Structures are given as C-alpha cells and as structure tokens.
C-alpha cells in the first residue's frame, strides 16, 4: 500500500516506487517503544494542528514521539512538508514543494509560547527551488520566537543550502543559540554559537569509519555529536545493515569525549533533537567548565 502525504494527497516517495522491497528485520528489544497514548501527547498534537504546523517527529516517523510529546517537546519542520531531495533513508515526503506559508514563522512563535518551551528545535525540508534555500524563512522564524517567547533558547537544524550563496550568513545573523547541521557546520568565524552534528549508524559503516568521522568533526571544532540507530521507514528505503548493540553506542560516547567533544549523545534511540533542551544546558555547563580550566 503506497504511503500518502496527507497534506497533499500524493504518494510520499514516488522516486522509490520502482525500488525492490528490502527486508525489514525485526527490531531488538532496546529499539522497541510504547505507542503514544498520553493526554499530553494528544494536547501537543492538537496544538500543532491548530497552528497548521508540520513536525519532523511525525514526518520522519521518529520513535521518540510519544516520550517527547508527552513532555510537550516537538521539533517543528518549517518550509512545508515536501522535500526536494530523495535520500534513501529518510521518511519525509519527496516531490514538488508546497508554497511557502507567510504566516508560518508567527504560528511557530505562537506554538512555542503556548507550550512554554525552555528550548525549541526548528528544522526544515530541503528547498532547492528557493533562491535562498529557505534561509530567510529560518531567520523570520527565529525572530518570531524571540518576540513571542523571549525566554526560549533556539536550536536550528538546517539543510545544506547547496549552491545558495549567502544563505548561511542570513541564518547566523538571526543569532540562534545552537546551529545544528548533520555533517556540515557553521564556520569557526561564529564562535558564540554552539555547533552540533549527527549521524545514523546501521547503514553499512564500520566502527573505524565512525571514529574517523569524529576526527573530521573535531577538526572543524564541532562541539556536540549525536549518534543513533538507523531504522528503515519502509521496505523501499535503504536496508538496515546491523542493529548496533547499546554497549557500542556507549563506546562511541567515550571515544567522542576523549577526542574533545563538549558533549556526546550516543544511544540507539538518539535523534538530533532528542532531549535537546537538557543537552543545551549541558553544553553551556561543559563550555563554562572548559573555559574555567583554560
């Protein structure tokens, strides 16, 4: 049965239609989570619908949605629900993007204020069709959150802004508290912003390659790295090569700390925005401790 993008009534992954089905192995116990049933989850979901907001929690089929939404933590996905890319491992819909909603920044700000969030993560689809890749929309969203919920710290998880000259500078000038981009980071010219990057394991990489990637990220002065287990969204997506044991995730975390990351989050269910509010506080404490030692 084809997956459907309910906002557009279209097939979610038309580019994968002709892919052969790949077996989806049974998940081990440490990757099993309970179905979300709490009243707080329902309240968060209702608020997202009220403000016509999209969340990566739903679009990417995040396994942590029940836990996070029960705590009224939602990662909002701006710039529409349809991506211009077609990554082999991603569950976000691919196709012709939605028109930009000019009211989206204000709606995000209103939702953040109603949820009384200490920390919020804002991500997006890729928008190769826009001249600035959506950078201006990110900046307007940051401004709207500052206006409606000035006490909230803001983390952004951006696309790569491929061939969008000046896009990165537009976002940085809006002064988010954390700039997160998986595998690409803000240049060292912006030291007041924490830098963060994340990967999934279980796609065919070796532990040695993970270690080398840590070295590459540290050479770019990335502060925080997240590592989580890849979970195959559908049989048409890239297959799971292995389920990494929790003890290996613990070893990744120890290895990363030894290499100089201020913070490591490495568990099977880790995602870029998982426990982001607590992680931001831990980042601040780690940087202050490092400065005190200097």
Describe the 3D structure:
With 294 residues, the chain is α/β, with parallel strands linked by helices. The strands form 3 sheets. The chain has an 8-stranded mixed beta sheet, sandwiched between helices. A two-stranded antiparallel ribbon has the order 1-2. Helix 5 links the parallel strand 7 and strand 8. Helix 5 runs parallel beside helix 6 and helix 7 packs parallel to helix 8. The N terminus is likely disordered.
Number of helices: 9
Q: What overall geometry do the principal axes of the alpha carbons give?
A: globular
Average residue-wise pLDDT: 84
Rg value: 19 Å
Percent helix, as a range, is 25-40%
From N to C, what is the helix and strand string?
Answer: EEHEHHEEEHEHEHEEHEHEH
Tally of extended strands? 12
Q: Uncertain runs with pLDDT below 50, 5 residues or more? A: 1-10, 183-191
Q: What's the end-to-end separation, in Å?
A: 58 Å
Strand order of the largest sheet: 3-4-7-8-9-10-11-12
């Amino acid at each position: 049965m084809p997956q459907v993008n309910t906002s557009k009534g279209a097939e979610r992954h038309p580019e994968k239609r002709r892919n052969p089905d790949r077996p989806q192995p049974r998940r081990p116990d440490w990757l099993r989570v309970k179905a979300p049933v709490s009243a707080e989850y329902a309240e968060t979901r209702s608020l997202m619908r009220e403000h016509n907001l999209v969340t990566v929690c739903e679009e990417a089929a995040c396994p942590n949605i029940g836990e996070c939404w029960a705590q009224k933590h939602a990662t909002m996905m701006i710039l529409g629900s349809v991506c211009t890319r077609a990554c082999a491992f991603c569950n976000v819909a691919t196709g012709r993007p939605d028109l930009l909603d000019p009211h989206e920044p204000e709606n995000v700000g209103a939702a953040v204020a109603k949820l009384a969030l200490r920390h919020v993560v804002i991500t997006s689809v890729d928008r190769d069709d826009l001249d600035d890749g959506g950078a201006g929309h990110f900046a307007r969203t940051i401004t709207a959150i500052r206006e409606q919920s000035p006490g909230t710290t803001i983390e952004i998880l951006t696309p790569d802004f491929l061939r969008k000259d000046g896009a990165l500078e537009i976002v940085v000038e809006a002064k988010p508290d954390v700039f997160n981009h998986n595998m690409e980071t803000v240049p060292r010219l912006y030291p007041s912003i924490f830098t963060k990057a994340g990967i999934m394991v279980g796609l065919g990489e070796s532990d040695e390659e993970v270690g080398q990637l840590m070295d590459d990220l540290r050479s770019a002065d990335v502060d925080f790295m997240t590592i989580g287990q890849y979970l195959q969204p559908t049989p048409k997506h890239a297959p799971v090569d292995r389920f990494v044991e929790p003890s290996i995730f613990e070893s990744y975390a120890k290895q990363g700390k030894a290499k100089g990351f201020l913070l490591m989050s490495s568990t099977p269910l880790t995602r870029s925005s998982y426990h982001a509010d607590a992680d931001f506080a831990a980042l601040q404490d780690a940087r202050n401790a490092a400065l005190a030692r200097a």
